[in-house]
Amino acid sequence: MSRKHDRQGDVLILKTKVDAVPPGAKKVELEQNRVVLAHGEVTGHAHVIEKDAATLFETPDGNRYLTVHRVTSLKHEEHAAVKIEPGTYEVIRQVEYTPEEIRRVAD
Asked: What predicted TM-score, i.e. pTM, was given to this entire model?
């Protein structure tokens, strides 16, 4: 049985119920020859996957989807690596509420 979600810091990946990325989503370009799911706002570190293991897409409204082609790891300098199975995932950045605003969690 595969897991339905994984979390690494402020990044959550949810296994989608569909096998394909939504129509209209565009491929996100590699950064430094790797797939970057998110950048840390405080440290500058990034949540990354090897370039040949997955493809990241973004819809016009900013939702992100990850297609994982083979078993791989989500890596970050300050977190333990997370094993990810092949499939399609939605990538969500955790947010937090403050009286001033709702903002992304700074990792």
From this structure: 0.79
